[in-house]
Amino acid sequence: MARHGGQKVQKRLNTPKHLQIKRKHGKFFVKASSGPHPSRFCLPLLYIARDVLNIVDVNREAKKLIGLGYFKVDGKIVRDKAHPVGLMDVLSIENIKKYYRILPDSHHGLILHEISEENSNFKLCRINQKTTIKGGHVQLNLYDGRNILIKVKDPKNPKEDVYSRMDVLKINVPEQDILKSLAFKEGSQAIIIKGKNIGQVGKIKAITKKFGPKASTVSIEHDGEHTETLYDYTFIIGEDQPEINLPEIK
Fold it and tell me: pTM above the 0.90 mark?
C-alpha cells in the first residue's frame, strides 16, 4: 500500500482478482477503508461508481457524487469514497432509482445484482457468533459487522434466544429489525460464498460436523449434482425458496 496525493492507494496489479480494473485508470487504485468486510473481498464505493456502474468516467466526478450523498449502503448515506461494499450489502442510488445487492459470483468474485426498490429494504445477515452479556441478554454478532441485541426476560430460561451460529437473519435496513430467521439445516437453500465453487446455489443435503469450522463440511445439491464445501463457506438464503432475487444462470 502507498500514499498517492494524500490518499491510501494500492498498485493496480496488486488488487484482488474480483476487481476488474481497467488500464486507463493508471498505476494506482484506491484501497478500501477498514470495515466489516475483508479488504480483499469487497468493492470500494469509488470503484463501483466509476468502473462497475459507469455513472462517471473520472475520479473527480465520482468523488463529487459520493460527497453529495448520492449513494446509500444498507439504507444509510455513505460519503466515504473508499467505503467497503461487501457480500449481501444493498446499494441504493435513489436519484436514478437503481438498487443492487452484492452477491458472490463464479467469474468475478463479487457482482452487483440489480433488484427492485421493494427488495432493497432488507438484507440477509449470517450469525457468526453469539455472546451472552450482562443481565443474561444475548448479542448476535453478524457477518457484516453489526450486532443485534436479543433481550431475555429470564436468563435461566432464555426462551427469546432461538438463534444459532450460522443461521441467517432477514432484517430491514437501516432499522435492522428481524423480519425472519433462516435456520442452518438440511433442506435449506444456500449459496457458496468462498472457494472454487463460489456463487453456486442449491439445497443443503447433508451437514457433517467435525472439530472446528475448517473441518466441518456441507453437501449442496444443484441440478442433481452434489458439491461439498466448507462449513463457513455456506450462507443460507432461504428455506424452501430463496428470500432474495438471484441472477439468471446463463
Answer: no
